Amino acid sequence: MNVVVTSDRQLKLPLDQILGSFRTFGRLGPLYQILDVAGPQTGPDVIVRVRVVESGEELEYALAAALDDPLAP
Prior knowledge:
By secondary structure, the protein is mostly beta strands. The protein is about 15% helix and about 40% strand.
């Protein structure tokens, strides 16, 4: 299954390339893992569920924002 993100750009990504990835909120923010898709799977408002590693907290986060966050080293 693919997730399609549209805004000022259009991305078509296989879901398995996104799920499970670790990223940080901005360059210096906390580490989080993308768990699954929580909202619509197409369009500009795709929402993913993420887990903040440090606290274990689970949040809903815009996929477009997550894709702008750096991958964790």
